[in-house]
Design brief:
The chain is mainly β. The chain contains no helices and 3 strands.
Length: 76
């Protein structure tokens, strides 16, 4: 878990949680590796926030991202 380095006025918890896993195979002729990461965090989105006469239309977004990487190679 990565804690946010900045304290904000909206008291939104912006900590980021990252999980990762990987597996690999290595033979005399080739190798293959698979890695997967999953991260989740919250953000606050408010367009035109600096104009005081606009109504506050802030939205808290829950972001979840999963990425995978597959690599192949040949031993020679």
């Amino acid at each position: 878990m990565y804690a946010t380095p900045v304290r904000s006025a909206d008291n939104l918890n912006r900590d980021r949680r990252v999980l990762s896993a990987g597996i690999g195979v290595n033979t005399k002729k080739f190798f293959a590796d698979l890695a997967v990461t999953n991260s989740s965090y919250n953000t606050n989105y408010q367009p035109y926030a600096y104009a005081s006469y606009f109504p506050s239309d802030a939205r808290i977004l829950s972001n979840k991202v999963t990425q995978a990487s597959l690599t192949f190679g040949f031993n020679f």
